Amino acid sequence: MQRPNSGDYRRLFASDTPFIDTRAPIEYERGAFPTSVNLPLMTDDERKQVGTCYKEKGQDAAIELGHSLVNGEKKQARVSKWKAFCEANPNGYLYCFRGGLRSRITQQWLKEAGIDYPFVVGGYKALRRFLIDTIDEVAEKPMTIVGGNTGCGKTLLINELENGIDLEGAAHHRGSSFGRYVDEQRNQINFESELGIQMVKKLEKGINSFVFEDEGKIIGSVSLPISIHQSMQNAPVVVVDDPFDTRLERLIDDYVVKMQSDFVDHYGEESGWEHFEAYLERGMFNIRKRLGHERHAELIDAQKNAILQMKRDGSIDSHQAWLAPLLEQYYDPMYTYQLGKKEERIVYRGDYDQVKEWLSTR
């Protein structure tokens, strides 16, 4: 039995439904869902021409122009790509921006090619609206905030909890000056989509209270949704108090070992090292004003010496010479000050395992 054109948005996201996104590439680049593939009905230029025609001459003329622009071999090539996707993803759906003309044309051309494939009622706009509404829905539910100094493994802890919501994972950024990854951070729209999908999947499991990592308004270059940020300001806080050496070891693994390996894997040996060095230098540069000129210069020298040592013999111990003072003199005092403003909301403190157990029993 053929699936109907779907408006059941929660089910679509909860089941990681594959999507054909028939919007133009420029629309897709502004924002897209993680399980979607852009197989546009029209190119950016074709869409622009049709849009201009619609404004000047109306819908009928625009449709006629669209068919004249996409026909013959060009039409066949696009239908072939859609058909291959449909055959590889028989459980999928297609959509355009509003679930209107482009969806119906794509669906009709597929039918002519022998495939009956459903489209999403309301299209991309309705799907995105649903995710924004889901974020606002979760913001009204009970939540707990996990705090703690840099290196306490808060993000790792969040991901080990059934009701944890990984804000940094959705943002694809670790939230600190050294928080970027090798590939680009998600833009605001895609961050919100990733976050909303996380929440959809939790709600689908019947989870109705959530745990978030303590974050400011900004993670890298994206902003927390206002509803989530506001709710976090009033939520109870649990604090991870891990030893300094444990935190330092985690940071060396995250910022040095893993990042060096990822850069080399991505760019190759020589270029990977260059990008890795630039990443560490940029991280220090971002906080130079707070460190002060003299302290910044000292830590940069220690950082460069550590990289040279790492290149020579693979040793990572020298990185303690810049990361340890950075923790002691910059990150720890800053977070202690911030946490002090939340003192009245703190309901539990313990090391990583103790906090994990405390949260798991609630």
What does this structure look like?
The chain is α/β, with parallel strands linked by helices. It is 59% helix and 9% strand. The protein has 17 helices and ten strands. The strands form three sheets. The protein has a five-stranded parallel sheet with strand order 5-6-4-9-10. A hairpin with a 2-residue loop joins strand 7 (218-219) and strand 8 (222-223). It is globular and about 70 Å long.
Instruction: Note the beta-strand portion.
Output: 5-15%
Chain-averaged pLDDT: 94
Strand line-up in the sheet with most strands: 5-6-4-9-10
Number of strands: 10
Helix-and-strand structural type? alpha/beta
Helix count from the secondary structure assignment: 17
Radius of gyration equals 25 Å
| End-to-end separation | 43 Å
Order of helices and strands: HEHEHHHEHHEHEHHEEEHEHHHHHEH
Low-confidence stretches: none
Gross morphology is globular
Helix content estimate: 55-70%
Largest sheet: 5 strands, parallel
Topology:
Layout: H1 9-14, E1 19-21, H2 25-30, E2 36-38, H3 44-57, H4 59-69, H5 72-88, E3 93-95, H6 101-112, H7 123-139, E4 143-148, H8 154-160, E5 164-165, H9 167-171, H10 188-204, E6 210-213, E7 218-219, E8 222-223, H11 226-232, E9 237-240, H12 244-267, H13 269-285, H14 288-291, H15 293-313, H16 320-340, E10 346-350, H17 352-360
Helix pairs in contact: 3-4, 7-10, 7-11, 12-13, 13-15, 15-16
Could you list some keywords that capture this structure?
three-stranded parallel sheet, 59% helix, 362 residues, 9% strand, alpha/beta, 17 helices
